[in-house]
Every structure is written in C-alpha cells, then in structure tokens.
Amino acid sequence: MKPLIPSDLPAPESDEARFHAYRAPQRRWVRANFIASIDGSATVGGTAGGLGTPVDQQILAILRAHADAVLVGARTVRAEDYGPLRHTAERQALRKELGFTGPARLAVVTSNPDFTGEERWIAEAPAPPLVITTAAAVRRIPGAEVIGCGEGASRWARPDHIIDALRERGLEAILCEGGPHLMGELTNADLLDELCLTISPVLVGPGTQRIVDGPSWQAHRRGRLTQLLEADGLLFTRYVIEH
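Above: the chain sequence. Below: its structure as tokens.
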C-alpha cells in the first residue's frame, strides 16, 4: 500500500503494519467501514463484494480486529452471506496487546429476529453473537444473546439505545458495516466517530444504493481526512467525524 496522507506514514506492507495503521485514537470509538464506486454506488449486483479486492478484504478484517463488536443490519447479513467472525492468530495476538480479550462479537440489528440459530454466523461463532431488537420483539435464539432495546412496542431500536446496550456489556470499540439505513441512523444521531471509506475505481451506473439511506438529516456532518492509502487502484480513506 502506498501512503498519501499523512506523507510521512511508512508504507504499511505487512499485516502487522496495516493493523497498527488503523489503530483508533481511543478505545471508546464508533467506526463505520464501507466501500463505494467512483460514481457513488455502495453495491454492484446487489452486494458490496464486487467492488473490492483482496487488499480491501484484508483491511476489513483488520478493522474487525480493532473492534469489540461488529454492528450490522440483518438485511446486510443476509445479502452478504455473513459467516462467523474470526481473527488470524497474528491479529489475535495484536488485539491482546491493545487490551482486547477474545474475538470481536457480531451484533445484528433487526426488527424481526426470526433467526433459527443454524445460520453460520451464529452456529460457527467463536463467541455468541448479539441480536439487537426492540423490547417487544425479543425471543430466544439458540447460540445468540438477544437484546431488547428501549421500551414499549416501538418498531425500531433507537441508535443511541443500541450503542448503550453494547457499552453496558463492555463493548466499547464498535465497527458498523451497514447497511445504509443503520449507517444513516447512527450518523444522524451524531454517534459516528470515524468513517473508513474505500473508493473503488468502478463506474456502476444508475439505480444503485449509496452508503447512507433513510430520512433526511436536519444538518450535515463534516469529516476530517486523517489517512489516505492507495493499493490496486483503490483509495482507502479515514475521516474523523466532527461532533
């Protein structure tokens, strides 16, 4: 990878160097990681996978290795065919140096927790994943911890309640992987600290989705570019979001 910003950043060629290049400023940190085409599409053929490269997948794995919890919507879990979250032995050792214990836990947000427990991301998980829903929708799912956020019969769990529920369980470093509705809600609620956006050199064309969706915001959010790397024609950006 070629570092562009900051200009004095050594080229992070090894997995360990790339791991350290993505260290967060503090442990209590909410990140999002997305990929988008140069014409703004978050997917190609219905998934994000077609936009990336092996280097992009490595950065995704490194960001997961910096997380206590990987937060994702149920629709994205299904569309991208999520498997269990696992770290290589090297990344697990690097996690331990930073004070992380055990693997990152997958936290899936849904209004309808109709999972059976046989899904790969549950059945093969090294640590029980979390299923986050509303208080009214809580049900037992074998192999998962189901969390009811908020009170009453609300259809959606509020983003602040979701983050609070994770932090109550000691999960401070949170990585959001989408989808666009969840990303929009977190950002609109001023809960996002950083966006890691990979820009893929692909023109997808009209009719596809952006990385954010949902109701219009009352105010825009501004990001400050802190890191820019290039590899295989992809740009790997990091923006700290101003609060």
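The chain has seven helices and ten strands.
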